[in-house]
Fold this protein.
Amino acid sequence: MSSGAAGIQTPAKRTVKHGPYPASEKKRSVCHSLSSRSIGLFKNDAGALYRENLTVLRSLVCQDTTTFRNVWTKRSKSPIEYEKGRIYLENYRCCYSSIALKPELLYELPKCSKLEKIEDALLCECPLGETLPKSSDHKPCLLALTANNWLYRLSAQTGALLESVYLSSQYKFRYLEWDVPQETMVIKSVQKKLVPMARHALLCLAVFRVLPLTLLGMLEINKRVFGKSVVDAMISHGLLIVTHSMGLVRLYSLEHITEQFMLKKLVLGEKSEWNGTTGLVGEAPFGIPLNIQIKDCPPLLFEVSCLENAFQIGGFPYHYIITPKQKRQKGSYHICSLKDNKLAKNGVQFMECCSLESDWIYFHPDDSGRIVHVGPNQINVLKVEEAQGSQCQVVQDFAIAAKRENKVNAVTVTASGRVVKTRFKQLDDDPDQETFRIVEYEGELDLLAVIQTETEGKALIGLYDNQTGAVIKDIALAESWDVTYSQVLFFERDTIVHIEQALNSNFNCYVYKMTRDTTDEKEQQ
């Protein structure tokens, strides 16, 4: 399939290898694992029992007699969100827990006006091994951003208000993102419409440390400082990432910006004076002043030119993935070293496919440094290895291929009996063929869940071993899969959540739970 990718071998046909472990790994029965757990035959390190429990759960999930059954369906006129065992409806007003055999209502917040509705949220879990000032800090919470610029910290279990911070009246804040997951978060404003002779501020970013909630600073992205071509900016992993209209991406150190341009350190709840106005930081109407004011362009750490500002960093050692701006390079992905910008050997990945939707590529979320390249009928899992000298090389770890029938000629018989042969090339994402739509990684079970659509809207989830790519089993979805809808899938332990956005902004949520199919056993009896 991937003849356009240098050094990539065509994968063999998909073969079924039942069992969740690689061939070289010793397999143990569930009974043996449970017996060992009961008498404490584990290492003394922390987490050994937890890992053994997940081993048992994975064995159960991968058994032939285990299936997943639709236990709950919910429809809504507003977006449905899911995160870590919780389903949120009506702009996070209603919260359901998916941990039980059937989702149960955890809490329901009072109805509110459009100005007070929650527009974005992050689920925050308590840190381990730290002593926090409040007892509520040791429990999961929901960090919620409202339409009127309030940041709320709500109990993830009851919805009770734990803390509130008023951001500002100068900007309209709308987006919540992690800078470092579960450690620092960024609140991003919408972009201002710039008019001639007006201020050159494009947007605003507020950075907080979570648990306890602590303000790190608020800063503006100004076109006078970063250039007239700036179109967007965000903070991730301690880097200020600024994108430009000509496809240029530039990276700056947030730590350096904070040290050089912070005018005054602010503490939430404390009295402060700013531009002749006195108030409490984080309280209305004072809010949070711009205590980080970038006067000059900070030192540039890295820059790269790419198509549509699509830029990813990952791997070991660090590499980045881009599509060059040249038209002849469209559809290809270049994997380059972050250290010296050198293209890795076999670093140009091109999936030769004819489809309505393009292929996509990303760094594997299992922190292995591998790369996942997904096309309509093939999934390539790649790894970056050190080669001779300073150059690294990209090699294929494994590949997953869809089951296809090669149809070259279509034969039609006319009314007069004449046979007409039509030559055509079928699309690789044709609805009548098995096509890969979504790839989801279940980290605790170390499984890949791949949504595969077939004829007449049928869809199934293929479970694959994350280390070898061996197919373990298929799980059929009860609902039909409309390729014109926006779809997302979550796979977490014994639960599968499928959310789709149908026509007229209608949202549907389907929850599947693991169960045992005893049909074969009853037939044998």
Observations:
- The first strand starts at residue 66 and ends at 76.
